[in-house]
Amino acid sequence: MQIEKHSLVKDLPEHKHTIRHLKMHNMHFSKLFDRYHDLEKEVHDIEQNNSRVGDDFIESLKKRRVCLKDELFEMIQKTEQAL
Hints:
The chain is mainly alpha-helical. The chain has a domain at 33-83. It is 77% helix and 0% strand. The radius of gyration is 14 Å and the shape is elongated.
């Protein structure tokens, strides 16, 4: 079974230029971006390989990923509103 990846640029293509700008010029955004993609890779690998992990563990990873995505999206919106 093919599991879909949730890269930030793929999920928010209309904000691609802002994401790139923030990644290059905002160290906090860049760290959160990297953390988001590390979590995304971990979740994807677990699901793709049918790894034996508890439901609570995978759900906690997914919740952390969503929280990071929300924080990143808020930063994107604030940056775009400031322009």
